[in-house]
Structure formats: structure tokens, C-alpha cells
Amino acid sequence: MMKLEIHLYGRLRRFTDNPAPGKPSIINIDVPGGTTIRGALEKAGVSTEEVGTNIFLNGKYSSLDRAIDEGGRLGVFPNDMNLLYKWHFTKE
Amino acid sequence: MEKLTAKTENLPDKYKNRGGRWLTDSYVCDEVDPNCHPLGPNNKLVFAPGMVTGTKAPSSGRISVGAKSPLTGGIKEANAGTPFAEQLVLLGYSAIVVEGVPKEKGKYWQLEIDKKGVNLNEAKTGIGDVLSKAYGELFKKHGKHVGIASIGSAGEQQLAAAGVCFNDIDGRATRYAGRGGLGAVMGSKGLKYIIVDDKGAKEVEIKDKNLFNKGRQKLAKALTTHDITKKGGTLNSYGTAALINVMNEAGGLPTRNFREGRFEGAEKVSGEAIKEACEKRGGAGMTGHPCHASCIIQCSNVYPYEDGTEHVSCIEYESDWAFGPNCGIDNLDHVAELVRLSNEYGLDTIEMGGTIAVAMDGGLAEFGDGEKAIEMMKEIHKGSPLGKILASGAVTTGKTLGVTRVPACKGQNMPAYEPRAVKGIGYVYATSTMGADHTSGYTIAPEILSVGGSADPLDTDKSALARGFMDTTAFIDSTGYCLFIAFAILDIQEGFDGMVESVNGVLGTSWTGDDVARIGKEITEMERAFNKAAGFTKHDDRMPEFMKLEKLPPHNEVWNVPDSELDKVFK
Among B261, B268, B491, whose Cβ lies nearest the Cβ of A22? Predict the structure, then answer.
């Protein structure tokens, strides 16, 4: 199992116990190696429908389908906070 | 200014159809000796609104200011969005060229422009005052409708971090052509204010109204549908400071004078936190504020004190980062106060945040000590020796304090993107004619924001990307459009076409996308030639050494791009 610290932003913060902006809104979970980011978010109870295009696994730009090969920090922004454009970017 | 006269003349034929950065550059390159002292009699300060400024084109109210820079020693163009730009165009002016220096020191002048003509008079209001007070008195005397360009106390002292200030849509002294010390150049000329009164002015002449309308509607459609620029979109809801959390997750948010790429207090000073404070404290607080009337993106804000009264406009990403994460400060009210003081004294927030961070690195304060940072800023307005050193910028402050970690290129402090984590922007910082400047080639768009193509931020082969962005940007800076239209037009082809058509409609030209690239290239090459004549070589297109030596957490990357790669950008 790998430890994952999920940092959620914008309206995705409501899926955590500390949803107020101004401090980190975090969910800590354990996932088996090879789990995708989508799978990890579903396990954490986060609606992936609302996830936008800014997803960072350990600071690296990522897609929902990226398999997690190492635990650490996952930063996820909602789809009304897009600062990037989905159809141009080849993600890991 | 030597003879203290002002006159009008026709725009030379050779400058026909030029606006904004293209026009300020043209005057500076043709008429300024590249080896002159930036604060001496042979430098010229040029103001030029963009090609479509003053029309109904969306987000088009920008004005460029140009001169030889006292900060970099090279050519400089900085631009701002302000009603002043639109008013100047409506009165029929393509540019203002300020020449010479007055014989009498310690006195200041104001240039007044209205439909009857131009007048140069002694400025007796607001000398040495904070700018909110000075602007208030000028509006009382000349009417609330006038536009004002000015310098603050830092510009009066001719210090290299001084910017040129313009009024915003509500009459605040808050919109800056900030970078490169253009306020010091204005101060050296003894020019305190330019006051523009467009009462009774005519509409702007548009050569082909149908084409213009077609073009501006296409552009407006792109801006109002793109996720980043639309109403209720990222910029409109959270302001540019939405980037704080994004760059922090990406590990590219420069922290404590570029020691780290991630700041533990980032969320406290984020765009979300600003929005929450505006909503909770209420009163004057607002996001979605426009800097000038034609703007439909509206990314500015008004940040309130705890009791809801107005503290400052605006906390945008660069200012927020410069005084926040870069100084290790996680108190938004302290950041707001540092931005307010910059506005009041007429300073560039990026250079000053960078300078305070270098001063903290040099032991003048602890990182994170917002109160001490505020005290240091106040020294500038007092005119104390410390204040004068600080307002001379990060490089001078670093030298004075023996600091080797000075994140600057060509004498100008880097803005809010870590080049070790986002390599393409490093190419731009190193090779830009302007010194370290994110707006001269916003490769962040494809690298982090993924607009207009794709690029891996940690990949090192970015010379073509950097060059392409620098050229396109030079054209946009000449149109009078806000650079933020780039988010939409790089993604939506119709928007790009609309931008070009709107320019053609106003000017009667028949430019295509190829001409945008050609003109952009011409502009950057003109700037390179000026810098070369001023003594710049490829050895000035380099990154600071410490970035090659110090690994940046969390990616633990150094600047690993060979110098030979940087030399390819302008080959």
C-alpha cells in the first residue's frame, strides 16, 4: 500500500473535513500500487466528474488515468478553476 | 523639458500603423543613444496607446511606456490597462515623447492635454505625497473624468524600482507600467503628472467598420467562452492569484528568495483566500473588478480591511507572490499593506518584493516577518539611505548586503515562476530584451496552464517555444489588447482571427497570422539591436549562477540548460 496525501481546492474542498479556503483541505488515504488517480479519488469519495484539468502528482502534471507508482502528494483542482486546456496537453 | 515647452506634431509617416510597444520601441531605437545615461538628458520617455485602444474592442485599453531602463541598462517597454490610454487616443494622440531634463532641479511639471492642445505647467500638488492623496487633489481640481499618469516619491528620487502609475476605472492610483524603472526616468525629466481631459473628444476613426465589428465580436466570443477568461471563469472569479495554489502544487512557486519551489503558507495568500476575505468582510471588497471600461475579463480585485473598508486594489498574482511566498509571508493583510505602500510610493511590486526577499536573505529581517517588511518599505518614502538602496532594486540591494542568491537577469528581479521547475520561462528570463520578465514570453501557458500547445515543464529544449512566444507577445503588446487575451486566442482560432481582423479594421491594413509573427519578430530584433549597441552580448543572456548550483525542492532540479541552448533562441 502507498500513502497518498490528497490536497483539494475550490469546491472540491467540501469532500474534506476542513473545507474552508486559507488552509489545506486534505484527505489521507492508502492505495495499492498501480491505482489510477481516478481510482484514488473515487476511494477518497471525491466526485471525479467535478475534477478539472489541473492535477499534480508530486508536482508533476498528470491525468486522471495516470497510474500511481509512488505515494506522496496529489493536488487536484475543480473544473471551474481550470487554468489549462485539456485537449492540448499530453499528461503522464 | 530643457526649455519647458510642449508642442504637437504629426506622427512621422514611417511610424504609420504602429502602436503600443512597437511605437515606443521605434522612438527609443531611432532617437535614443543606446549609450546614454538612462537618467540623463539624452534618454527619452515615450507613451503610446495600442493600435485598437479607444475603440469598442474588448480588453483593449492598454498603454505602453518606453525608454532606456535605469534598472537593466537596455531598452524597456512596460504597459498598463487604464482609462488614460483610451482618453489619449480619443483626443487624437498616437504618442507622447518626453525629451531632455530641466535645468532647475527640485521643481516638477505637469503636462496637460485636452481638445484645445497641450500645456506644460509647474506641478504644485502632491510633491512628496502618497499618490492616493495627490490623485484626489488633482481630480478635485481637474474633474473626476480626467486621466492621470504620474510618478510617486520613488520616481521623484529617481530610484530604479519606480514605475509609472495610471488611474484605474474608479480613479485609484493603482495601474502600473511597473517594471524597469520608467518612473525614475520620468522623475529625471522633472515630469510629475500627465493629465488628459477628453471632454468633447471625437470617436476613434475606424477604416473598415464591418471588418472591425466582425473581428471584435469573434474575439469577444472567444474571451467569453474560454474557461480562463469567461465571466465566472478562473480569472474573473479568483483573479490572477488563482495561480498561487496551482504553481505551489506544481512545485514552481518561488519561496523565500527562490530557495524552494513550494510554500507551506501558500493557501493563506491564495486567490481563494482573497475571494473568501472579499465575501466574508464584505463592504468594499470585490473580485471581478475591471481596470478599464472595455475589459470583459475583469481579473482585478479590491481587497478590504477586516471592517470592510477598502485596503488596496489590486492583489494580483505577481504582487501577492512577491510580498507573500517570496518573502515567506503568509499573512494576506501584510501582503495587502505592502502592495498598498508600493502603489502609494510609485513602485514596481515585483522588483520590491524581490528586493525585500533579498534583504531578508541578507539578514535585514527574518523571512516571514511582514511587519518588518512594511517598516523597510516605509524607509523609501522617507528617503533614508536604506530606502534608497532598497528602491534601487534587488541587484543593488544584494550587492550592498553581500548576497549571492539574487534571482535576476539583466539587472531585473525574476517574477513568480521558478525557472528550475519550469524551464521554458527560464529561457525567456535569460534571453528577453527586457531582463527577467514573464510577460515578454508567457511560456507558462503551454508549460503549466496548457494553453496554445503542449510542453513538459521539466524538459530543457525550449528555444523555439520561447522565441515564438516572445514574438507573438511583442505584437499583442503593440495592439493595446491585454496580454491575457492570449489564453483564449491561442486556444480558439476564431478568436485569433478576430484579433487580427479587429486590428485590420481599425488601421485599414490586411495583415494575416504570418504578419503577426513577422511584426513581432521585427520588434524583438529591433530591441535586440538597441541592447547590442548598448553593450549587451550573449553573456548577458544568462541565468544567475546560484540556480546552477542550488537544487530547488521539491523537484530537486538545478538550472541544467546549457548556455549554448540559450544562444539558439535568437539565432
Answer: B268
Chain A positions touching B242 (Cβ under 8 A) are 81, 83
Mean pLDDT of chain B: 95
> Considering only CB atoms, which chain B residues are within 8 Å of A90?
454
Write the pLDDT tens digit of every residue in A4-60.
999 999 999 999 999 999 999 999 999 999 999 999 999 999 999 999 888 999 998
Which residues of A are less than 8 Å from B491 in CB distance? 85, 88
Size of interface A-B (CB pairs under 8 A): 89
The verdict on a CB contact (< 8 Å) between A61 and B227 is: no
CA–CA dist B9, B21 (Å, integer): 20
> For the domain that residue A71 is a member of, what is the CATH number?
3.10.20.30
Predicted confidence (pLDDT) per residue in B528-537, tens digit: 999 999 999 9
Cell digits for B391? Answer: 528602491
**Closest CA relative to residue B60, chosen from B290, B349, B288:** B290
Alpha carbon distance B162, B146 (integer Å): 23
pTM, to two decimals: 0.96
Q: Please tell me the distance from the alpha carbon of residue B200 to that of residue B159, in angstroms, as a whole number.
A: 38
| Cell 484645445 found at | B116
The answer to whether B476 and B483 are in contact (CB under 8 A) is yes
A45 φ, ψ (degrees, to nearest 5): 80, 25
CB-nearest to B249 from A75, A80, A90 is A75
Task: State pLDDT tens for residues B41-95.
Answer: 999 999 999 999 999 999 999 999 999 999 999 999 999 999 999 999 999 999 9
Phi first, then psi: what are they for B102, rounded to 5°?
-70, 150
| DSSP secondary structure letter of residue A68 | -
DSSP string for residues in B273-321: HHHHHHHHH-TT-EEEE-SSTT-SS--EEEEEPTTSSEEES---HHHHH
For CA atoms B495, B496, B500, B501, give the dihedral sign: negative
> Cβ separation of A89 and B270 shorter than 8 Å?
no
Q: What is the pLDDT of residue A87?
A: 34
Kindly report the backbone phi and psi dihedral angles of residue B259, in degrees, each rounded to the nearest multiple of 5, phi listed first: -90, -30
Domain that holds residue A51: 2-88
Q: Do B246 and A54 touch (CB under 8 A)?
A: yes
Within 10 angstroms of residue B564's Cβ, the number of other Cβ atoms is: 9
Task: Write out the H or E segment, with its range, that includes residue B26.
Answer: helix B20-31
Per 3-state DSSP, chain B is made up of helix, strand and coil in percentages (nearest 5) of 45, 15, 45
Domain count, chain A: 1
A78 alpha-carbon distance from chain centroid? 9
